[in-house]
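Q: I'm writing up a methods section and want to include an example of the input and output format. Could you take the sequence below and give the corresponding predicted structure tokens, formatted cleanly so I can copy it straight into the document?
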Amino acid sequence: MMPVHPHTVYAGTSGWAYASWKPGFYPAKTPAARMLAYYASQLNSVEVNFTFRQLPTEKQLTTWLDATPDGFRFSFKAPQAITHLKRLRECGDALAALKASLLPAERAGKLGAVLFQLPPNFRADVERLKTFLEDVGRVKLRAAFEFRHESWLDEAVYAALEQANAALCIAESDEFETPQRRTADFLCYRLRRSHYDEESLQSLARRFAKNAEQSDVYAYFMHEDAPDGPLRARAVLEALAQ
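A: Here is the clean output for your methods example:
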């Protein structure tokens, strides 16, 4: 029996609008306009990758919020202008615009984490990170950082994140794995391996249950043409509910 925990495990995938998930996840006749509502009946969070390329309009975001129940959480990928073009330099205005666009989700109590995914060729620059974290603190975003160059996996980086209450995103793929390191009052996982068997999903559920004794957990499986991602997330949530 898993322990009762005071915090919540929010599990889902990176996106929901995939017709190829019918009928494996979505019922065969689910229209596109009803996908998010069905998704939110099965899972309790989603990572929105749409915001990597453009910010949502208030109307778009309100439509998404209206389709989901209380307790659902939207996490958002930060714009590529911040992470890939400016590369964390002089981003005050861009962060303010991001914060403003997400305010409806925050007011609805449905704002999860904001993921800053850095490009693989971006080497560690601790001073630039510290300055950027000051800007993040001014706009009050719950920030998680996915570093994809191994030079960032360093104690000085972890200390800077901890000082700012920003999470080290614990990301795993077939090629790269981030250490299990807590730097904030929440945890963020991005689960990108090509294969997760039943035992590995049960193991993740046990880990998340342990994590949730101390903090909320956000965990997102990769979206693919096949519905493996949402089925894996649902299996984890079902294991936690047992």
